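Chapter summary example: a protein plus pyridoxal-5'-phosphate.
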Amino acid sequence: MQLSHYPAKLQPLQDNLFGEKAIQLSVLRLDELHPVVSGNKLFKLQLFLKQAVEENKTGVLTFGGPYSNHLVATAFAARENDLKSVGFVRGEQPAILSHTLEACDSYGMKLQFITRDDYAKKFEPGFLNDIFQSFPNHLVIPEGGYDPLGSQGAARIMDEIPAETTHICCAVGTATTVAGLLLGAKPNQKIVAFSALRGLSDFGDRVQYLTGLDYKDLNLELVNEYDFGGYAKKNQQLFDFMNQFYLQYQIPTDMIYTAKMMFGVMQRIRENFFPPGSKIVCVHTGGLQGNQSLPAGTLVFD
Ligand SMILES: *Cc1c(COP(=O)(O)O)cnc(C)c1O
């Protein structure tokens, strides 16, 4: 899969507020790379797939929950590379598959449901060995692509961001994407990481593991106060923001990551967090398929 075949658009946003604060703001529309697959996931998966092809693997194997953007992306990317894919899904097999798992299935992914207890063991070497036995010659991709190789793939997102950019904003789950942005950024470019999870106490260790760089040397700030109560938590204020943002800019956001990031960015602009002259790029990582689990009519877009 060649991501250069999917050029991403950089969309400038206009608002009186930005003029008042003397900042510029653009959104890198990685959400437009594919209607179902999150843009950042394709970048993170890129080098795993390259390795699987080079090593003549039969397929790839990975892990995720029933609404995992990473699972769908892996299913899609594997198929693009003529590889099989196996998805270990957390929890019992539901009577009706989530639309996410339906999409995985439509891309040919073999779904294996495992109990939450077994799922918790996914990083234990013994457990992985048992899996290797049942799926020989499959490359194992950690959940969320959480591996230095995932970040090296994500570093290529920086190729899409103009050199004069001063601040790059991105949502954080496993931190693999943000670590990639750090790998690709120049030292004077600040990465502002908006956590989609409550707390994220091990963020520094994660970034250090993923980049091999010392956390304290990095031009990075973690922003924690826009998680709306925690991972995948949502409320009417968030939906109202998503609708208003769409009506103003025609940019759909997802409720788990990108809506919370954009809400936080707007708030921080109002609070003068970005100095005058800042040229800000917000990375729209995609994830829109997740909105499909909302009741019809919640959002003004789909
Ligand atoms: C997975 C995902 C993220 C988080 O990426 P990490 O590399 O795990 O931090 C952000 N936004 C969207 C839309 C995602 O699907």
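Key point: The pocket of pyridoxal-5'-phosphate is lined by residues 38, 40-41, 69, 144, 171-178, 254, 257-258, 285-287 (CB under 6 Å).
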